[in-house]
Amino acid sequence: MTKRKPTLIEHFKDITDPRIQRKQLHILDDIFFITLCAVICGAIAGLPLKHLQK
């Protein structure tokens, strides 16, 4: 029997969310996935990632 490969979202599950609990409007996994899709599509290719941090 072959071992099942983890999905892309499952890789994000191990990352600790550093944000304040009461200020979380979106799930961190969703933010990572949407950002990854945007980078693949070239939507934010020219922006350094530090501009997305606050």
3D structure, described in words:
This protein is mainly alpha-helical and 54 residues long. It has one domain. It contains two helices and no strands. The N and C termini lie far apart (46 Å). 0% of the residues are buried.
- Percent helix: 25-40%
**Strand residue content:** under 5%
**Largest beta-sheet characterization:** none
Order of helices and strands: HH
The number of domains is 1
Mean pLDDT: 79
Low-confidence residue ranges: none
Determine the structural class based on helices, strands and strand pairing: mainly alpha
Q: Could you say which overall geometry the principal axes of the C-alpha atoms support?
A: flat
Please give the number of β-strands: 0
Distance between the termini: 46 Å
Radius of gyration: 14 Å
Tally of separate helices: 2
Give me the oligomer status.
single chain
Short description:
By secondary structure, this protein is mainly alpha-helical.
Describe how the helices and strands are arranged:
Blueprint: H1 8-12, H2 28-41
Which features does this protein show?
single chain, 54 residues, mainly alpha, 2 helices, flat
